[in-house]
């Protein structure tokens, strides 16, 4: 993946750094080969690897890189105290996440210390946000962390957060998220069209961002310029330009989107779209033929969301014109595969639950509890989706502010399984429990005597196997 404005400097920099160190007899060819081999396995920068191996030191590497990138090496601790007015030129969240620090101003130029001065895209964004020409120093990442913590007066919290919750480079592919076999090709089809607006809606903490990251992974090809505008950067995605904005103001979000729009990326991801201005900015992106993948925090069902869309969310009809797919997402606890146990219920109870099954009995599953799942019976979560492809008829109805009944009638044949169908499939395959199925479908397990009895007996056997005493069961009964 070629980041915007990068002009392949990363590859050039790594090659030249090795040559420069060899030419200065600061490392030998064997050491360079060893470092390059490690780099292929770790994706770390060559200079960092050489320093970690003890072949050279950080200050020497940064000096050489600085000369090559026209970014002088600076030791921030040895500079004069930076004026507060200069610090305020760059928002704290951008400084923290990108390891940058404004150092001084000269007329219409802002000098910024950076851990990676080759990131021309970031420099362009800073120029748009600050209104200054940007020139860069190169500085040690460790020194930058300390200086940012000092100048933004958050030393204790920042250091703790940085060390305790590092950004990860790993994230799940689409096929592992929870799409059913029918749903996955439909979602992938609209994703790979690489145009229009694809929105993922759901309540807060329903896993929408994980779906976005998986989508970007699917699209992360060398010819794609991808930008992700995030409220909080939870993962570090290699080859994707990630920008973090404050989560308190729609103004910051729409200004960032408009800034990114000037660089014409063909794929934009936006987290937690809220205000009218941000929707309008997204409409302008879509008009250019870009793919916009957005998340929206809402407890509404897809059809309710679309009914309210013209009134509450945007006056910019380009968003509606370019809608391709809306995906609603929920998270459900997954049964632990290491202690999955089957039990039988009557077909009558199953049909009362809403399951589309035939026969006198059916098998469903629960986790018995084991050391792997800390005796809970659950191991992680599975996502459940409802997908609605947006055809021209639905677009017209949205613009006409039609009601839910008309939208429901216009749903295309291509629409995949409802939440009810998806949960049934996962229940019968042993991926989710009857208890969680009923909870998502807003039904109380106490209405189903057979299930409640099975649940109590399963709990009894779990407690008995762990303690060897009937007293554990009696205590459980008294509490419940």
Summarize it.
The protein has 480 residues and is an alpha/beta fold. 45% of the residues lie in helices and 18% in strands.
What attributes characterize this protein structure?
45% helix, 22 helices, 4 domains, 480 residues, GMP Synthetase, Chain A, domain 3, three-stranded mixed sheet, disordered N terminus, Rossmann fold, alpha/beta, seven-stranded mixed sheet
Q: How many distinct beta strands? A: 12
Which homologous superfamily in CATH is the superfamily of the largest domain? P-loop containing nucleotide triphosphate hydrolases
User: What is the number of helices?
Assistant: 22
For the biggest sheet, the summary is: 7 strands, mixed
> How far apart lie the N and C ends?
56 Å
Q: Domain count, please report it.
A: 4
Shape: globular
Radius of gyration: 27 Å
The helix content, as a percent range, equals 40-55%
What does this structure look like?
By secondary structure, the protein is an alpha/beta fold. It has 4 domains: 9-68; 76-163, GMP Synthetase, Chain A, domain 3; 174-333 and 384-439, 3-Layer(aba) Sandwich (Rossmann fold), CATH 3.40.50; 445-479. Helix content is 45%, strand content 18%. It contains 22 helices and 12 strands. The strands form 3 sheets. The protein has a 7-stranded mixed β-sheet, sandwiched between helices. The chain has a 3-stranded mixed β-sheet with strand order 1-2-3. It has a two-stranded antiparallel sheet with strand order 10-11. Helix 13 (276-287) links the parallel strand 7 (267-270) and strand 8 (291-297). Helix 1 packs across helix 4 (58-68) and helix 21 (449-467) crosses helix 22. The longest helix is centred in the last third of the chain and has 19 residues, at 449-467. The termini are far apart. 34% of the residues are buried. The model is unreliable at 1-15 and 154-170 (pLDDT under 50).
């Amino acid at each position: 993946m070629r980041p915007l404005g990068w002009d392949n400097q990363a590859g050039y920099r790594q090659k030249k750094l090795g040559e420069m160190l060899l030419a200065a007899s600061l490392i030998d060819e064997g050491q360079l080969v060893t470092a390059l081999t490690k780099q292929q396995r770790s994706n770390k920068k060559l200079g960092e690897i050489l320093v970690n191996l003890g072949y050279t030191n950080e200050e020497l590497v940064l000096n050489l890189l600085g000369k090559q990138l026209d970014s002088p090496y600076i030791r921030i601790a040895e500079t004069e105290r930076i004026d507060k007015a200069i610090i305020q030129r760059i928002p704290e969240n951008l400084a923290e996440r990108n390891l940058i620090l404004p150092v001084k101003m000269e007329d219409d130029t802002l000098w910024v210390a950076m851990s990676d001065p080759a990131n021309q895209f970031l420099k362009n964004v800073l120029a748009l946000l600050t209104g200054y020409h940007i020139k860069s120093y190169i500085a040690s990442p460790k020194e930058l962390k300390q200086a940012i913590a000092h100048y933004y007066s958050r030393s204790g919290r920042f250091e703790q957060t940085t060390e305790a919750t590092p950004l990860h480079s790993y994230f799940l592919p689409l096929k592992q998220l929870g799409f059913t076999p029918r749903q996955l090709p439909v979602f992938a089809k609209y994703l790979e069209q690489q145009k229009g607006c694809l929105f993922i809606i759901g309540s807060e903490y329903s896993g929408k961002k994980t779906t976005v990251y998986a989508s970007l992974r699917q699209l992360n090809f060398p010819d794609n310029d991808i930008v992700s505008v995030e409220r909080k950067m939870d993962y570090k995605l290699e080859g994707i330009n990630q920008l973090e904005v404050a989560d308190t103001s729609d103004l910051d979000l729409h200004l960032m989107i408009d800034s990114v729009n000037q660089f014409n990326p063909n794929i934009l991801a936006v987290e937690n779209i809220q205000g009218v201005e941000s929707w309008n900015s997204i409409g302008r992106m879509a008009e250019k033929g870009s793919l916009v993948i957005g998340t929206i925090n809402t407890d509404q069902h897809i059809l309710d969301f679309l009914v309210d869309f013209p009134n509450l969310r945007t006056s910019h009809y380009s968003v509606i014109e370019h809608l391709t797919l809306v995906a609603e997402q929920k998270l459900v606890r997954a049964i632990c595969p290491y202690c999955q146990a089957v039990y039988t219920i009557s077909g009558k109870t199953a049909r009362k639950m809403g399951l589309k099954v035939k026969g006198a009995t059916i098998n469903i599953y629960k986790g018995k509890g084991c050391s792997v799942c800390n005796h809970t019976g659950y191991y992680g979560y599975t996502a459940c989706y409802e997908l609605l492809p947006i055809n021209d008829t639905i677009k017209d109805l949205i613009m006409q502010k039609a009601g839910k009944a008309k939208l429901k009638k216009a749903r295309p044949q291509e629409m995949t399984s409802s939440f009810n169908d998806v949960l049934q499939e996962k229940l019968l395959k042993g991926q989710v429990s009857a208890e969680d199925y009923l909870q998502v479908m807003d039904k109380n397990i106490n209405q189903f005597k057979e299930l409640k009895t099975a649940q109590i007996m399963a709990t009894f056997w779990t407690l008995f196997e762990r303690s060897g005493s009937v007293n554990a069961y009696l205590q459980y009964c008294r509490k419940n």
